[in-house]
Design a protein that fits this description.
This protein is α/β, with parallel strands linked by helices and 163 residues long. The chain is built from 3 helices and 8 strands, in the order αββαββββββα. Helices cover 26% and strands 33% of the residues. It has one domain: Double Stranded RNA Binding Domain (2-Layer Sandwich). The termini are far apart. The radius of gyration is 21 Å and the shape is globular.
């Protein structure tokens, strides 16, 4: 009886541990502005080729097309940092954390992808968004696709649910 209980407890513990490893951390998004519905675009130089392909495929499926003299300039940036590293904005009057460090999980990575789309005629930014995943970083071979999809599917101010 005791041996059966020990096996059942060990099996339950193993399922909990395996389930915890298999779960994907949530992706947090923030956005402002509106994604362009039509026009042409160019990507700023220095973008990871896989990320460039993924964005271009998405944009072309939405009716945007690449061009030498585009209506919109797209800037994509990515970063990974240890969760224990934050970003503090020192200011005489107002000191604040832009990204507070998570000291309880300081060795785990935080992956961030940001996108900015600007109107080339005016220089005005028409869309800005970011996606952050804490805790497990990117999976091998996954690339930045899940974060890019989260950014591109994030609701803008006009589509955000009323709270």
């Amino acid at each position: 009886m005791r041996n059966t209980f020990s096996r059942a407890a060990a099996a339950a513990l193993a399922l909990i541990l395996i389930g915890g490893c298999a779960s994907t951390p949530p992706i947090e998004t923030q956005s402002s502005g509106t994604l362009p519905a039509e026009g042409d675009f160019a990507l700023a130089e220095g973008v990871d080729p896989d990320l460039e392909r993924a964005f271009s495929t998405w944009a072309e499926g939405r009716g945007l097309r690449p061009a030498e003299r585009p209506a919109f300039l797209v800037q994509l940036s990515v970063s990974e940092r240890p969760a224990g590293t934050g970003l503090f904005l020192p200011d005489r009057d107002d000191r604040q954390w832009l990204r507070a460090p998570d000291l309880s999980r300081k060795r785990r990575p935080v992956s961030t992808l940001a996108i900015s789309i600007a109107d080339t005629a005016t220089g005005r930014e028409v869309f800005r968004a970011s996606a952050i995943r804490r805790g497990s970083g990117r999976r091998a071979g996954e690339g930045w696709d899940p974060l890019l999809q989260a950014v591109l599917e994030s609701p803008g101010p006009s589509d955000a649910p009323a709270g």
